[in-house]
Amino acid sequence: MTINEVSRQYQIPRKILEEYERWGGGNSVKKVIGARQYDSRDLEYLSLIMTLPDIGFGEDEIETYMKLAFQGADTKDERLRILEQKRGSLLDTIHFQEKKLNHLDYLRYEIKCFRK
Question: Three-class SS of residue 99?
Answer without folding.
Answer: helix
